[in-house]
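Can't attach files on this board, so I'm pasting raw text. These are the components:
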Amino acid sequence: MSVRIGNSTIAMSNAVSVTSFSAVGGKKEGEGPCGSFFDYIDSDDYFGQDSFERAESAMQGLALQNAVEKRGIEPEDITLMLGGDLLDQCIGTSFGVADFNIPFFGIYGACSTISEGLALASLLTDSGASKITAAITSSHFCTAERQYRFPLGYGGQRTPTSQWTATASGALLVEQGDSAPFVRAVTVGRIEDKGITDANNMGAAMAPAAYSTVSRFFGDTGLSPADFDAIVTGDLGNVGSRLLCELAERDGLDLREKHVDCGRIIYDQSSQDVHAGGSGCGCAASLLCGRFLPEIRAGRLHNILFAATGALLSPTSSQQGMTIPGISHLVWLSDEKGEF
Amino acid sequence: MSVRIGNSTIAMSNAVSVTSFSAVGGKKEGEGPCGSFFDYIDSDDYFGQDSFERAESAMQGLALQNAVEKRGIEPEDITLMLGGDLLDQCIGTSFGVADFNIPFFGIYGACSTISEGLALASLLTDSGASKITAAITSSHFCTAERQYRFPLGYGGQRTPTSQWTATASGALLVEQGDSAPFVRAVTVGRIEDKGITDANNMGAAMAPAAYSTVSRFFGDTGLSPADFDAIVTGDLGNVGSRLLCELAERDGLDLREKHVDCGRIIYDQSSQDVHAGGSGCGCAASLLCGRFLPEIRAGRLHNILFAATGALLSPTSSQQGMTIPGISHLVWLSDEKGEF
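---
Top answer:
Structure tokens for the assembled complex are below.
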């Protein structure tokens, strides 16, 4: 039985382990400061395909295949997979994983997708509903840009608050087991909408969601930032990261020392011209799978909170003048099984 | 602990009950043969809003509010909600449920969404991860038509195999408890792609997925169609329903006597001009919540298999000449708790 703690946090009752993980990325991501964390970098972002949409699917397939091979299993050993992406109707995932023939639940959490997938995978593995559970997501600069904003050839100016969609994918496997990293607890996000309408400032739209989830985790568990090596958010970028720390400070919670944002570290902001940072489902997913999970496995990180964030807008909602609701799901990752 | 049966079926280990359900629909749905099953029918499909997208969100909010009120609880008593819809980035749901302030996981399964939501809600309630779990979805003819096909004013001809997207929403609550209907088991779908590329023939694209899931349920459990009052599929329509029965017959499985398809019964095909039948997430969801769950609660149906089906295409994938992958998730609903 899962153990509910407080209002919205759920602790694992078994040792739930992330047993394999893989990160795949594009050229720009390979050239950034996190380039060495990727298992594979594609040289032209086409991944051998003839459209960017097919490239994104191929990238997901590659990430999943890597994770499976590292674990030494076959794809059909996976008993359940959870995945989704930013493309309309999540076609990046549907076409990316169809050939693997694995029982599949589609999920949608925009850039929070890997948190949602890892949270659901952990809960369903903890309960025994699934034995080996995969979570996967991706984003691709060229598919997202032309779907959400402008045709690629248009060459529109980007505003200072805009973020650069990462071309990247992360895939991971969750099982009951005795090897770190372990999932200790998850906090499910609520949709937060503070009335932001600027689709080029998604960091501001998502920061309240991140804060809502992180603060509820601390409230539910009685833990504090001092108990963690890092509090990792998805892709708030420069603007959203500043807002998150300010929102926390108002409530007397100091996140500044422990806060790391994937959107701020995936690119070199002085040389890679990404404005407010990176974004996209693949940004947080690839750094989770390429950097943070390996660091916990190696014992260099002991406890982190991982809270990817998503902006639940669409071009249609923005064109109709709607606000941008945000959501963030949190996963506590640890090198100890522990008991709650 | 959940109990895995065979390859992809999971039985509940506790008595998991669907404790409340509500169906809301549009004018055409109200005029059809299932009109009396809806809790509310809107007279002009705008649900008091000024755009069809906002109307779809308002419809979802209404369905959820109804389900909550029938159960005599407050929205904040819901510990987890799962929902999604057909619109790009699932905005129907994000804007429909944001104000309820409930921990929320977005899901995407196209027209199989209510099966996916009910399956996940059941598994997470069975394990104790959630106490009162909601699942919700919707579709709206006017939002789907202009997003997937043509502007509404264009008045394009529809092919004989095309289906009519229902304007409807279904919401339900799942809890551990002692009152029928009970969820006995779920079978998670796999993505099936038989190479269909005609976006106006989604029944044909989805039938293999429905058959894959239904046949795996029978294989995993050793049960047969004779054990059920009805085998209900989502929205295969006339073409897909015929294909499903043919696929089953090839394997010596006779579904014809027990098979009911929501897409075939939601409209009067002789007078409502819907060609191959109804479709959309709301079609199966509203008939599940408005017709089948009440019939089980009343003891008029004892055991049914409910397998909504989804076509995982997007306009972009179709324009790029891609095939249409399908998926179907199955839920065994019963008026007895039973033991597996």
